[in-house]
Amino acid sequence: MKIDNTIAAIVTGGASGLGRASAKALADAGVKVAIFDISEEAGEEFAKEIGGVFCNVNILDEESVEAGFAKAREAHGQERIVVHCAVVAGGGKTVSWDKKNNCYKRTATEQIAKSAEGIFTASYRIASIAALGMANAEPLNDDGERGCIILTSSAAAQDGQIGQVAYGGGKGAVNAMVLPMARDLMDLGIRVNAIMPGTFATPPMLRVKDMAPEVFEGLGKAVPFPRRLGKPEEFASLVMELSRNTYFNGQCIRLDGAIRMPPK
């Protein structure tokens, strides 16, 4: 796909972290960007900064998502690139010791269901609504390409740590969806890929830094090379390549500095 000012994109979670870096990279290339986020003040400010449009969207709510797509399309036309970075997830070990009640407890099924909704179901919601719009658009090139969808998975999908049953399971489901969805959409010329970031310097990790600097430093040192946390701009760089390169399809790509974390 040719990346220029004729292309519109939607980036979920675009007010911060990986989404913000992706939105900026796309806007810097001339793309018309709509940001989906629940952080209204930050989202409005950043959208104004990059010349985009902000849509207050809750990825757990179908009507909210539909309204966001409608607003983005009214402003920029049919999106041809969707980058889904927003997530709602929880954690907890399958069974752990409850010091307060002096007994073992399990992570509630409802907590797992919430993560499934905020990771897997929300990813399908965003991707399928985008695909329906793209299906009705004219092809962009001789390949018949109509658009590309980039989901955010995680290295935890393959390498989940203690306490990541909900998160790793949800991200694993995203990975499992990519290839069949790409095949579902192949006759429409819509590509589907996922990026599996490792440990990145985004808001969750920055909160770790504020709480325990030694833990934060240890996370970076655990990466084989380069021995540091990933930069959001490095994630955005891969987003740009996946958008440009029409031969990338049905792929789940690790972006993690070769980290393979043993359980701790």
From TrEMBL:
For this protein's source organism, the top of the classification is:
Bacteria, Pseudomonadati, Pseudomonadota, Alphaproteobacteria, Sphingomonadales
Species this protein is from:
Novosphingobium malaysiense
* Keyword field: Oxidoreductase
| One Pfam entry name | adh_short_C2
Q: Which PANTHER family match?
A: 17-BETA-HYDROXYSTEROID DEHYDROGENASE 14-RELATED, SHORT-CHAIN DEHYDROGENASE/REDUCTASE
This one is known as: 3-hydroxy-2-methylbutyryl-CoA dehydrogenase
Q: Does the keyword Oxidoreductase apply?
A: yes
MF terms in GO: oxidoreductase activity
